[in-house]
Design a protein that fits this description.
The protein is mainly α. The protein contains 22 helices and two strands.
């Protein structure tokens, strides 16, 4: 039974999707479709929670078709893949519950549940597969479903965003296939474990060339500048549950690929410096762009891009401490960012607008205001919320590198100022409004997880993140031991993080002037042709910078 757990996790949502398609010919009741979808999403979560301790102690391998490693396709449940799979289960289940009883929140369309389960199948597969070609195929399953789900709001903007995502995604996946081909040509295997043992013997120039193709794909999938152009419109125009999945999980696929790719033989100084460069550029641009807009979903989208930049820069250091802090922040972001987007969707539903000048967090719905505020405070790093600890760890890990520390702190100050801007404009008086109960349940769950993970940081770092880090990079990281929750408060990273908050509050009015600088056509609202051009230019920049080293 244990050996088959990985394949059952992937098959469960796929089976649910097939059953929904088969019974659709008989006009089933909505309640029956709800039950089937809920069961298909719940079963993988139960299996993951039941077998996580076993897989952490001893990874579970499932060889498809009985073909032995490295010749066949293998599914792997280790610390990292289980951690990300649990996040898939939590986010997909809560986003479905979010709109389960409030049918007006669900996009109209007969295939919504089918596509949602299909997308979930792909996400589980991306994280559980142990070879490159299957990772590509599962991600294609994910994005194909996402292309259609983006259009379910049936607006001109959503159709444009879906088509944009389709073209940009196709270009990036083609480049990814080229990289896979080069890997196979040089190594002779596509199994990641075998690649990790053989690739370090490949000449450095060849590895640099291979990574240049992977870097573009990672940049597109995770939203790194200048590969990000598809992301803002896709997040804003998508139905709120899909936006939560995009921000909480889909962009994390790119980051997960970055962790796994560097670990198999690409931890070369030239490559790592390029990763840091793109991460810092993304963080600076993403944080500044939050001041260009009034729409809450678009602001949160640029926050996502900025956070991805911080995580990427931290990965580029490739030390045990930087990798563990980046992993922990990726986990935390996967919890509080869906919380923010689902809360924003509920706010838009109640007020009929996403303009931060027209909504209220003060006298509106108290539970909704509280959950949204918890998400915002986690974003800027207020203890004891999970975002504080992972951000403090990231700052601590870059303290020995001033050229990285300074932009890190600047990015955080801008992000915090942007959050204070949201709170400032959304603090007006308002009449009390009621939200559907089904919308509030997942918000309470995610808000509770945000608090729980933060207050149990030592457990996560010692038992999940630490062992996961050891899979990627050898050595011990700094953030282990007992009472991390208390010691972080007066650590260099924690104190620096807290000291940036009053600075951010003071300079917020100054940063408001950013909205008067018209760069949207260059950075955000670019044409499809320019978007493709940015991807190809980005590929050229990566190759050029790597050759300089």
């Amino acid at each position: 039974m244990i050996r088959h757990v990985p394949i059952i996790i992937i098959i469960a949502p796929l089976t649910g999707a097939i059953i929904l398609e088969l019974i659709s010919k008989f006009n089933p009741s909505q309640r029956l479709k709800d039950i089937i979808t809920l069961a298909a999403l719940t079963l993988p979560v139960i299996l993951l929670l039941a077998f996580t301790p076993r897989s952490i102690a001893d990874p579970i391998y499932y060889e498809l078709g009985g073909w032995e490693i490295p010749y066949g396709i293998v599914l792997v449940m280790d610390n990292l893949s289980v951690m990300m799979s649990v996040l898939v289960g939590i986010v997909t289940l809560t986003t479905f519950i979010y709109s389960l009883e409030s049918k007006e929140m669900l996009p109209t369309g007969d295939k919504y549940y089918f596509l949602f389960l299909f997308m979930t199948t792909g996400l589980y597969g991306v994280f559980l597969t142990g070879d490159l070609i299957m990772r590509y195929e599962f991600f294609e399953v994910t994005v194909l479903a996402t292309y259609v789900l983006l259009t379910y709001t049936k607006t001109k903007e959503s159709l444009r965003a879906s088509f944009y995502y389709l073209i940009i995604g196709s270009v990036s996946t083609f480049l990814f296939l080229v990289g896979i081909g080069l890997i196979y040509f040089n190594v002779g295997f596509l199994d990641l474990k075998e690649i990790g043992e053989t690739l370090p013997t490949v000449p450095v120039p060849a590895r640099i060339l291979i990574f240049s193709f992977f870097m573009v794909t990672i940049g597109v999938k995770s939203g790194l500048v200048p590969f990000h152009t598809w992301l803002p419109d896709a997040h804003v125009s998508a139905p709120t549950p899909i936006t939560a999945v995009l921000a909480g999980l889909t962009v994390k696929v790119g980051l997960y690929m970055l962790f796994r790719t560097i670990a198999v033989g690409f931890a070369i100084p030239a490559i790592l410096n390029i990763v840091i460069f793109f991460g810092l550029i993304t963080g600076i641009i993403g944080s500044l762009m939050t001041f260009k807009y009034w729409d809450i979903k678009r602001i949160l989208t640029w926050h996502t891009i900025a956070q991805v930049g911080l995580i990427t820069a931290c990965v580029g250091l490739w030390t045990p401490s930087s990798v563990s802090s980046a992993l922990y922040h990726m986990v935390n972001h996967s919890i509080f960012k869906p919380l923010l987007f689902l809360s924003a969707g509920a706010i838009i539903y109640l007020y009929g607008s996403g303009d931060i000048r027209k909504i209220s967090l003060k006298n509106g719905h108290p539970i909704l205001a509280s959950t949204f505020l918890i998400g915002l405070l986690a974003l800027i790093g207020i203890p004891p919320l999970n975002g504080f600890y992972s951000k403090a760890f990231m700052i601590e890990s870059v303290f020995s590198r001033p050229l990285i520390l300074i932009p890190f702190v600047i990015i955080h100050i801008i992000i915090a100022a942007s959050v204070f801007r949201i709170i400032y404009y959304a603090s007006r008086e308002s009449e009390k409004l009621d939200a559907p109960v089904s919308m509030l349940k997942p918000l309470i769950i995610l808000a509770g997880l945000t608090i729980f993970i933060g207050t149990t940081t030592s457990i996560w770092m010692n038992n999940i993140i630490g062992p996961g880090t050891s899979i990627l990079v050898s050595g011990s990281h700094l953030f282990t031991g007992s009472y991390i929750e208390l010691s972080t408060l007066w650590s260099k990273g924690g104190l620096t993080l807290l000291l940036t908050l009053p600075i951010a509050y003071v300079i917020r009015p100054v940063l408001e002037e950013v909205k008067n600088i018209d760069v949207r056509r260059v950075i955000s609202e670019v044409s499809l042709t320019d978007g493709v051009r940015y991807v190809l230019i980005g590929q050229g920049i990566v190759v050029a910078l790597l050759l300089l080293y």
